[in-house]
Amino acid sequence: MTSRALCLTSVLALIAGTASAQEMSFNRVASFPTLANAGADQDRAAVTSAEIIAASGDGMTLVYTDSPLKVVGLIDITDPANPQPLGNIAMGGEPTAVSILGQTAFVAVNTSENYVNTSGVLRSIDIATRSEVAACDLGGQPDSTAMAPDGSFIAVAIENERDEDLGDGRVPQMPAGWVALIGLDNGVLDCDSMIRADVTGLADIGSEDPEPEFVDINAAGETIVTLQENNHIVILARDGSVTAHFSAGSVDLEGIDATDEQAALVFTESQPGRLREPDGIQWIDTTHFAMANEGDMDGGSRSWTIMSRDGAVVYESGTAFEHALVQVGHYPDRRSDAKGVEPEGMEFATFNGTPYVFVLSERGSAVGVFDVTDVTTPVLAQILPSGVSPEGVMAIPSRNLIVTANEADLVEDDAARAHVMIYEMTASAPVYPYLTSAGADSLIGWSALSGLAADPAMPGRLYAVNDSFFSYQPTIFTIDITQQPARITDAVVINRAGRPAQKIDIEGITADGEGGFWLASEGRSDRMIPHAILRVNASGRITQEIPFPAELLAHETRFASEGITMIGRTLWIAIQRSWGDDAANTVKLVAYDLDTKTWGAVSYETAAPTEGAWVGLSEITVQGDWAYLIERDNRIGSDAVTKLITRVPLADLVPAPLGGPLPVVTREVVRDLLPDLRSGGGYVVDKVEGLAFDAQGNAWVMTDNDGVDDSSGETMLLNLGQL
Q1: Is 594 helix (H, G, I), strand (E, B) or coil?
Q2: By the 8 A CB rule, do 341 and 324 touch?
Q3: Is residue 326 left, alpha or beta, with left meaning phi > 0 and alpha meaning psi from -120 to 50?
Q4: Beta pairing, strands 71-76 & 212-217
Q5: In the chain, domain spans
C-alpha cells in the first residue's frame, strides 16, 4: 500500500465515528496570547511572537522565545486549561531557541551585527528567580538547541545564516556554520568544555558553507544535525567527530497544486526530484529519525520522512500529509507556487506506550499526529488546529500535554495575534476537524466557506459555497452532517456554459425548490464585479442573473450581499455594512419579488461597534415564523465583542420601495456565539459566515477561514441544536 493510501485510510478511520469511551486522543484545551505577558509599559500594538518552546522539568512552566521583543516569555500551566502569564525576561539580543533542564532554561541568543560579523551567547536562566546563572560566548549566530537526555551536555546549531538578498542569495556565504557541544556540570554550563564540531566539506551543495539548522540528541549521546540549504544530514559523536553523513535526498511529487495564480485548488501538477531540504529533525530511537522537509534555497518536498542512521529511507510521506490538510480545509493556496503546507518543526514523544511524531505545517497552521509504532508505516492519528504559523512544539508526556508556539503576529492587519496553544490527551474522541472531505471519490480541496443552506428535500444535507478567494473556482459543496465530523461528499463548480464563472463573489446560498439554488454575489464595482442575484441549476450552471437596481447602487459600498434566503416568492438578501443612505449602525435587508420583478428593502439596526471596529450581517435564513441572521463585528480573539444569532419576525419583512424611508424591523438576540467560538480551545475567529437549520430544526453555524491566508485555517461547523 502506498504512503498516501496509508494516511488516507487512517483519516477515514478517524472520521468514521469509531471513537469509544476509552479512546485516547488530543484536544486543544487553551490558547495563550503572547500579548498577555506584556507589561504595563509595553505598547500593546507592538509585534510579539512565540517561536521555540520548552517546558520545565515538572511540566508546570512553559518558556518560549519571542524574537521581536528580544525576550523569553513564561507561562504557568499548572492548570493547562487556564494558562497564566508569568511575564517576559529580556535576553539582550534575539532569542532563537530554548532548552530546559529541571528549572534552568538554556536560551540561545543571536547578538550578530550583520550576516558577516556574527556572534551569539548561550544564557542559562533560573526559571524561579528569573535571573541569569551563567553565559557562554558562542562565537557565531545560533539557531536551534537540544538537551542530551541525560542532561550531560547541550548542542547548539551555529547557523551563520546566509543573506538571501546578497548576490544570488545562495550558499556559500562566509562565515561558515558549525555545531557547538557544551558540557553541563550538574546542570551548570561549563563554557570551557565547548567543542566546535566542524561540519564543512561534507555536503554536495555548498560544502564549504554548511548552515546547521536543527539539532537533536539521542539516548546514546549522538547529535543529529540538518544542514537545510545544503540538503544534508550529519551525525556527531559526543566528542564532535562525524560518525555519519549523507544527503537528505529528493522526492518525486505527484498530485500537487504548484501554481498560485489560478486562485483555485487543482491538484494535478508534479515536481520531480524535489530536494527535501529538511528543517526540524527528531530521533525516534538510536537507529531511526524523522525530519520535516520545509525547503529553503532550492527545495521543499511538502513532506516528512523517516530515515535510518545509514541514510536509508524507511518512510516517505510524499503528498499524503499535504493531502490530509487539503481535506480538512488547511491548504494555503497562495503558497502553491512556493512550498505548499511547509512542514517545518516536529517533536517525538511516547504517550501511554504509543510513540508519536508531531509534524507542524507552518503554512497550513496545523499539527499532524502520527503513530510511529511501526516506523515503516506511520499512521495519521489526528490533525490538530494550531495558531498562525506554528514554529515550535513541545511534548510533556508526564502530563499528557503537547504545546505549540505560533509565531505570526498579525497586529498590523487587525488579525490574529501570536499564541501558544495547549492540547491534552484524554479518554475522548477528537473534536477537530469539524468538517472534512476525506472519503470522497477524488481529492476535494475546500476553504474560505462563506454561506450555508439546508437541503429542503434531504434531511442531513447542507450546502456551502466559497467566496472570491477562489475566483477561478466558485464552488457549491455538498455536506453530509449525519457523520462526525461532517463530510464534504461533492463539489460542483459554478459555471457559465461549462466554464468556471468569473466576476462573482458568492456570499450566500439558498435552495430554489426546484433542485437548483439562488446565490448572492457580493459586488465590487472598482473590480468590475457586479452586485447580483444568480440562479444555478443542479450542475452549477448559471441560468439567470439579476443585477442590483440603479436605485440601490446609487449608494453602493463594496460591503454588500452576505446571505440570501427565500420567503414565498421573495428573495431576501442581507447587506453586510451600511451603505451611503443608511443611518448609523443600520444595514439593509433587500428584497426581490420573483413574480413582480420589483425591489424593496427594510432597515435593520445592529449593535454599536467598539472603537475602530464595525458590526454588520453575515447571513440570513428562515426557520418557522422568523428570519435568523448572523450579526458580527470584525474583531478577533479577546477583542471580539459581537458574534450573535439574531432574529426578525417574518411579519416585519414588508419591503418598502427603494429611495424612500425604510421601516425598521424588530431585532431580537437569540444566542451569543462567543462561548461557542471558544469551545474548541482556540481564540475567537472573526468571520462567522454561515447559518442553516437542518430538517430537525437544529441550527448549524459555520466560520470562514479566509483561505488560510493570514488565518489559522480553522473552519468550525457547529451544531447548536434547537434555538
Answers
A1: coil
A2: no
A3: alpha
A4: unpaired
A5: 3-433, 449-721
Q: What angle do CA 138, 139, 141 make, to 5 degrees?
A: 80
Contact 661/429 with Cβ under 8 angstroms?
no
CA distances 412 to 45, 47, 417, 454, 532, Å, are: 8, 8, 10, 37, 33
Q: Is the pLDDT of residue 501 over 70?
A: yes
Segments in 293-349 forming alpha helices (H): 320-327
Sequence-separated (6 or more) residues with CB below 8 Å from residue 228: 211, 213, 214, 277, 278, 279, 294, 296, 297
Give the Cα separation of 103 and 303 in Å (integer).
35
Q: Amino acid identity of 586?
A: T
Helices (H), 292-446: 320-327
Length of the chain counted residue by residue = 723
Q: What is the DSSP letter of 35?
A: G
d(CA 107, CA 72): 8
- Single out the residue of 357, 422, 426 nearest to residue 387, CA to CA: 422
Q: Which of 411, 414, 410, 363 is nearest to 389 (CA)?
A: 363
Taking residue 429's Cβ as centre, other Cβ atoms within 10 Å add up to 17
DSSP 547-587: EPPHHHHTT--S--EEEEEEETTEEEEEE-S--TTSPTTEE
Cell of 164: 538571501
Beta strands in 407-556 (DSSP E): 419-427, 435-436, 449-454, 461-466, 475-480, 486-493, 495-496, 499-500, 506-511, 517-521, 532-536, 542-547
Q: How far apart are CA 449 and CA 715, in angstroms?
A: 8
Question: Could you tell me if 692 and 454 are in contact, meaning their C-beta atoms sit under 8 angstroms apart?
Answer: yes
The residues that bridge with 604 in the sheet, in sequence order, are 587
With H, G, I as helix, E, B as strand and everything else as coil, classify residue 669.
strand
For residue 299, the one-letter residue type is G
- For residue 700, pLDDT over 50 is answered with yes
Question: Which triple of cell numbers denotes residue 111?
Answer: 547578538
Residues 6+ apart with CB under 8 A from 509: 451, 452, 453, 463, 464, 465, 476, 517, 518, 519, 520, 564
- pLDDT tier, 22 (very low <50, low <70, confident <90, very high otherwise): low
Which residue, among 12, 15, 19, 11, has the nearest Cα to 484 in the 3D structure? 15
Q: Which residues contact 380 (CB under 8 A, 6 or more apart)?
A: 7, 10, 11, 14, 320, 321, 324, 368, 369, 370
Under DSSP, is residue 321 helix (H, G, I), strand (E, B) or coil?
helix
Q: Which residue has the cell 524507511?
A: 314
Q: What is the pLDDT of residues 657-676, one digit of tens each?
A: 999 999 999 999 999 999 99
Domain spanning 3-433: CATH 2.130.10.10: yes
- Over residues 601-636, the pLDDT tens digits come to 999 999 999 999 999 999 999 999 999 999 999 999
- Joined together, the cell numbers standing for residue 135 give 553565559
Q: What is the CATH number of domain 449-721?
A: 2.115.10.20
The 10s digit of each residue's pLDDT in 459-485 is 999 999 999 999 999 999 999 999 999
Given pLDDT bands bounded at 50, 70 and 90, which one contains residue 311?
A: very high
Are β-strands 486-493 and 435-436 bridged in parallel, bridged antiparallel, or unpaired?
Answer: parallel
- Give first-to-last CA distance, the chain, whole Å: 47
Would 3-433 and 449-721 be classified into the same CATH topology? Answer: no
User: Each residue of 212-239: pLDDT tens digit?
Assistant: 999 999 999 999 999 999 999 999 999 9
With residue 620 as reference, give the H or E element that holds it: strand 615-623
- Residue 626 neighbours by CB under 8 Å, 6+ apart: 647, 648, 649, 650
Q: What is the pLDDT of residue 266?
A: 94
d(CA 390, CA 294): 13
Sign of the Cα pseudo-torsion (709, 713, 719, 720, in order)? negative
Is the confidence at residue 13, as pLDDT, over 70? Answer: no
Give me the DSSP letters along 177-239: PEEEEEEEETTEEEEEEEEEE--TT--SSSTTS--EEEEEE-TTS-EEEEETTTTEEEEE-TT
